[in-house]
Amino acid sequence: MHKSIKSKFVPYTFVGPAIILLLFFSLIPILIALFISFTNLNITGLGNWSSIKFIGLSNFISLFSDVTFLQSISNTIYYVVIGVPLVVILSLGAALMINYGQNRFFKLMRLIFYTPSITNTVAVAVVWTYMYNPNNGLINEILSKVGIPGLQWLNDPVTAKISLVILALWKGIGLNMLIFLAALQGIPKSLYEAAELDGANRWEQTKHITLPSLSFSIFFVLVMTLIGWFQFFDEPFVMTQGGPLNSTNSVALFVYQNGFQNSNFGYAAAASFVMFVAIIAATSIQFRIQKKQQGVS
Prior knowledge:
By secondary structure, the chain is an all-alpha fold. The protein has helices at about 1-35, 45, 60-65, 65-100, 105-115, 120-130, 140-145, 155-185, 190-195, 200-215, 215-230, 235-240, 250-260, 265-295. The protein is built from 14 helices and no strands.
C-alpha cells in the first residue's frame, strides 16, 4: 500500500518544478496584472500604496476611446495578418527545398536561413536601421544602381510597417524552418517509395504525403508564430519608436510606453490584459480548427 501511494507521487516530482515556475512567473503575474488593471496605479502608488484607488473598468473604457491604442491594435492586426502566413509559407518552402536538395549547396542554405534567428534582435535592428537610411543606406544605394528611386523606408507611414515586417520575416524564418526540417526527417521514406511505384510525381508526393504528415508541425508553428507577432515589440521599439505618426506602434509597444515611460501602470496593465485575451482567443480558434480537421481526417 505504501509503495503504491509513493509510486503515484513520483510523476509529480518530475512536473513539480515546472508547475512551480509556471505558477510564480506566469500565472501569478497575470493575476497581479489583472488586479492592477482595475486601479489607478502609477509611480506615486509604488511609493505610497494608500494612494492606489480601485477604479473599476475605467482603464478599459479609456483604452477603447484612446486613438493611439486603437491604432496600435490596427497595426498589430496588420503585422499578424501579413507576417504570420508569410513566415509559415516561407519557412515551410525553405524546409522543403533544403530537404529535397542533396548537395552541399543546400546544406549551406540551411546555415544561411538559420543564422538570422540566432542573432541579437536589437543589434540586427540597429544595423537594418542604417541599411534603411534614405540618404546613404545600403538598400537605397542598391536600388539606385539599377535605376530605381530610393524610398523613405522608416519615415513614411506605409513603408515603415512594411520595412519592419521584412526584417521580422528575415529573422523569423530560420527557427521555423528547422522545426519543419525535423518533421520532414520523421516521415517514413517507404511512403515516398510506394508513391513512386504508383507513378506519383514530386508535386503529388508533396501534396498527398508531405503536407498531411506535417499537419501538426504546421499547426505548432502557426500557433507559436501567431503569439510572437501579437507580441511584436523589438523592431518598432528600436527602429521607429512607434512612428512615424504612430503608424508602427504595436500593442506591446503601447504597453511599454504607458507603463515604463509614462509610469501609468494601471492603464498599461489594462492594455496588456486586452492583448492577453486576444492571444488566448486567437490560439483557441486555432485549436478548434485543428480539432475539426483531425475529426474530418
